[in-house]
Amino acid sequence: MAKQPDRRPDGLGGYIVHGVPFPVERDPDSLAFLKRMAPLQIEQDYAITYLHSYGQDSPWFAAASNKVLLGTRDANSGYTYATPRGHDMFSGKETDWIDLTDRPARIHAFTVCFFGSEEFLPETPFVLALIEFDDVNTLFLTRLMGMDPEQASLDWIGLEVKPGFLRNSKLKPTDVYFTPA
Amino acid sequence: MRPVYALSGGVSKFAKARPDKTFQAIVKEAYDYAIEDLGLDFEAFTALVDGSVASYFSDHFTRQLMAGIMAQDYLGLCPKPSHRVEGGGATGGLCFQEAWKSIASGHMDICVAYGFETMSHVETWKGNEFIALASDVSFDYPVGGFYSGYYAMMVTRHMKEFGTTVEEMAHVSVKNHINAFYNPYAQKRSRYTIDDVRNAPMVAWPLTRLDICVMSDGAAATILVSEDGLAKLEKAGAKISRPLVRVSGIGCGTDAMRMSDRPHLDYETFMRDYATEQEKSSGDTQSYYKKLWDHGTRYPGIHSFRAGRTAGNMAYKQAGVTDPLGELDFIELHDAYTSSEIQTYEDLGLCRYGEGGPFAASGKAHMPGIDYGMKLPEDPACPINPSGGLIACGHPVGATGLMQAVFALWQLQGTIKKHFNDGKLQVKDAKRGAIHSHAGTGTYVTVSILEGEG
């Protein structure tokens, strides 16, 4: 039998309390007692709306929203990036866009996340994978679909995969995902 | 450059939560301990110290910008010079090296490196989210940003290429947790077995909860000095432990933020630019690596940290270390994951790339005289994380690298029993040790060598 949790789930949230215990008197003994007081903790909301720019990487997101997977390449050396870089890390020169949509691809490494950051907890378990492409020098991080998270196996590494695209783009890197070819 | 000595240090108790104090007051716990260990009072030390370097990782966790100056202020160090250092998980190691530079350059004679993190102010999964923001927010974080996931991907590749096993990884967890059993500063002091590690809840396959360090609140401080600084302190009445501990080498390396961008270099480039001196001089090792490359290994890929190898090689060169396993008496290294401890064995040249798994299970990295509840095939050679490391001590990010420095200092002073009230973790006759601090998926890595003089 799987190990059962031995504690109830715990977290923030609760009642707002009005009135905090405090000595009635303000004589030296009472004030000295304050050093033995348990700490007060309050909850504060912490949320922002942030305007993020994809900058020079913007064409990648425009392409993904049109079901095209782009990479970049240094024109002279041919060094090719699966995750786009605006400038080559060796020559320092501006790279060119190339189409990787139909490029043969395989799983280079993967994991199944059973927990995650708060934003992604509702999506667990999910499979993260780094994808390698023929004649491409770097990798691409993606979600892998069509694999049973409970059956994770090192045999998945090397498996041929192909890109799929969201029907309705979110302009995020998850607009593209991969499935077994 | 001038010789730099680590004289004293302090560590707050690392805990899941310290709501009893603000971050400044937690830093002061560690700072006061370091001063008291010199035998000086607060005012006497304040009059002599030239400045400081502050270390903390995340403004998100503190929800306070310029927290460094608030610690500086609380410690009574204003208006002396100070600045904040930030480099992810390596923040503490970078801070230690910044303080070293302040002394070595002649800019200061007495410098305090202090660091902290208070991670308990948000729930664990929000904390994971904050930490994952230390990955590319355009291409990595939105895919499922989660550091345990990133490290799990690295280890599946390590397992595939080199045959590393989950049981070998679990050896690291058992070792570090049992070491920490004797360390009163550690957050987790539990005895686990290999089965306990493997049966713990799966977090990111194949890493379980016991393969991964925990979030913490805590602080640490280290005092570094020049020879002139030492003389000033002794003149003021400080009782300085002998042997003196000199920081004899520092190294730092970097790599691309996105794991996907790491290069996959050929054998010749690896041997020329990254092999250790020991590897370069061994025909057997060269033929071993040639075979790996013939089977498709490329360097560093995602299975290795070239930042760690770069930092190690740089520090070894400065300190004159040519055989790290034979010449280092212990290492406190950044084991945020059991798998990354194994990867780091290889980066630091304790074994060859691909041999970290068997090394973990060999017994060479274990402490002598401690019952790990299992029979290990070899004798200890260089205890790794005698303190219990991040996995058991906890990882209040900005404090961690400085905690390593303090524990290493105490090892080399031979004062573990004094500070831990138990001498079980004292490495006998320790003369030279290393500390290793590591950020991101291997983006910043520092290695510093400390050695006792005389």
Biggest interface in this structure?
A: A-B, 49 and 46 residues
Count every helix of chain A, treating DSSP H or I runs of 4 or more residues as helices: 2
Largest β-sheet summary of chain B: 9 strands, mixed
CATH superfamily of the domain at 5-122 and 215-245 in chain B: Thiolase/Chalcone synthase
Describe this structure in words.
Chain A has a domain at 55-180. In chain A, 7% of the residues lie in helices and 24% in strands. Chain A contains 2 helices and 8 strands, in the order ααββββββββ. Chain A is elongated, with a radius of gyration of 26 Å. Chain A starts with 27 loop residues before the first helix and ends with a strand. The model of chain A has no long low-confidence stretch (mean pLDDT 94). Chain B is α+β, with helices and mostly antiparallel strands and 454 residues long. Chain B has a domain at 5-122 and 215-245: Peroxisomal Thiolase, Chain A, domain 1 (3-Layer(aba) Sandwich). The mean pLDDT of chain B is 97. The chains are: A mainly beta (181), B alpha+beta (454). At the A-B interface, strand 4, strand 5 and strand 6 of A face helix 6, helix 7, helix 8 and strand 5 of B.
Label this structure with key terms.
heterodimer, A: 181 residues, mainly beta, 5-stranded antiparallel β-sheet, 3-stranded antiparallel β-sheet, elongated, B: 454 residues, alpha+beta, Peroxisomal Thiolase, Chain A, domain 1, 9-stranded mixed β-sheet, two-stranded antiparallel ribbon, 21 helices, 16% strand, globular
Short description:
Chain A is mainly beta and 181 residues long. Helices cover 7% and strands 24% of the residues of chain A. Chain A is elongated and about 80 Å long.
